[in-house]
Amino acid sequence: MTSTYISQIIxxxxxxxxxxxxxxxxxxxxxxxxxIAGLARGLQVNPRGKILNVGNSELTHxxxxxxxxxxxxxxxxxxxxxxxxxxGLDQIVNTYNFARAYRPIDKLxxxxxxxxVCDQGYQxxxxxxxxxxxxxxxxxIAVYCLNACEDAAAVISEAFVAPGLRIIxxxxxxxxxxxxxxxxxxxxxxxxxxxxxxxxxxTIVCFNFALRLGLQLSEQLQSSGLSADLFHANFVPxxxxxxxxxxxxxxxxxxxxxxxxxxxxxxxxxxxxxxxRGIHTSVRMATRSGCxxxxxxxxxxxxxxxxxxxxxxxxxxxxxxxxxxG
Amino acid sequence: xxxxxxxxxxxxxxxxxxxxxxxxxTSNGFEDVLRLRYWQHILNELLKRKSxxxxxxxxxxxxxxxxxxxxxxxxPDAICxxxxxxxxxxxxxxxxxxxxxxxxxxxxxxxxxxMGSMNLAMEDSSIAYTSSILGNNLPVAAGIAMNRKxxxxxxxxxxxxGDGAMEEGAFWETLIFARSHALKLVVIVENNDCSMSSTxxxxxxxxxxxxxxxxxxxxxRAVPGANLAEVxxxxxxxxxxxGNGLPVCVExxxxxxxxxAGPTPGWPDDPLHIALADGLMVREGIEDPVYNIRQxxxxxxxxxxxxxxxxxxxxxxxxx
Lengths: 326, 320
Description:
The structure holds two protein chains of two kinds. By secondary structure, chain A is α/β, with parallel strands linked by helices.
């Protein structure tokens, strides 16, 4: 049976939760019905852990996880939609600020929020928040977006149960798709950056859940004789982006693919870093530019990429200065 | 600094603390309440002099509740506080000097962040968490209780909140969560009929917490918050009941005698003009824990005890 995006993620999760000792896995309908639209289907836990169905109170669920963490316990909150996490932002921001200000990290337990990003479209204006990076910016914590099997395995094995707080996001749009296996060529120690393809003509950095589009672009470029460095970047404050910077130094061209709706782009950090280091790079931001009014209604919510334009950009002359266009 | 006038007017005979009847001192907690009031007076005098860069939410009137909790809480228990935590931190740490270190931003945790006042959780005090966000500490307390339950560890979690935080969704959510999962949680509601400067009548409809708790199948207790023995009794019972996995709500009717947060710019002057020079007692009435102690001891013994506490304590050094 072919593994899907979500089934391989649950496999990775089970490898952790079956071996990590005491851990509470909790969420609304975590062991009932669809099991959170499949997010918790097949979920297993070791004998010292527990799977717990809880009521509808996301604010309190976030506080409970942080309270357990302060008391040295481990927990993972499974959440149906990133939208729901907005109810718990006071806890994610303010309570964790207390913890990191006054408690040594090695004395803390683990708290992971494990939400679905409702990006499949046709869900309406209140069930389509996909700006995971905004949560990272607001709370100054790492927010990971699982894309390929390999980055998912790395993030889950290292961060699913580990001291402190983080958010690990899955994409509803990808749930039923075949899993994507892309061997990691290189990675940052903080899991902020993973490199999946190596090339010299253009640097492609994918944020949120855009890696499959980035792969598609790199393969199209390859068929026309251009090679690309292909990266997936997580929303990690203070991210170690040296690999991307070095790639841009070689290629002189950077394409940022970001399917999130945020208007504050993490990709801007890379541009700023390039400018600070005086590395002349042409930059093409293939991102959404916020939402038009009609964009808030029910629709496909699909992130459109103009591959032909990006291919032209990839063949353009190297810039004499760092310049963002398009 | 001269002694407060209503103490100085007392009998000339001096009494050393050590000479006081040991049972009298330790069994009823009066000494602790009076010392706590004295320390708050010291802080209040320092606030008047603008000695701190940080806001400090004093808690004149909350001393009996703080001492009662200090006497009831056992080593495995955990305590979660709100922004108005000064009385509890002083009661648990038993050191004005240690708290002042934090208020002067010279706390021992200098290698990490300084705690200041609104998030003060004194070291080795069982105070696990303190929040400046109304209602924020309630879910965290439930989480600590949940962790203890899953790990089969002893201990009851006490969380302090008030009539303002009762209006927050977190209050209701936490009660439901705690009851649903049989957590060993005691929610102490300090009902001072005040949220910043608004009384309950000025901002919302009444809430009958007894009825609310009945509806949620949560044990409810209500006592006057300025009466040390009654608060202590209620908290003892609550600790026992919570220990059996029944969350408990204890509502304390009390009065906060000071203004919101010290001499805050733009805030109306403290109508009571609380001053150490006027004595430890702030109000002649049962809302003041110190008044209740005076009534229990009688005037001569009260004066002797307060005089002995102040002279032995030496905290007036902070005012020189």
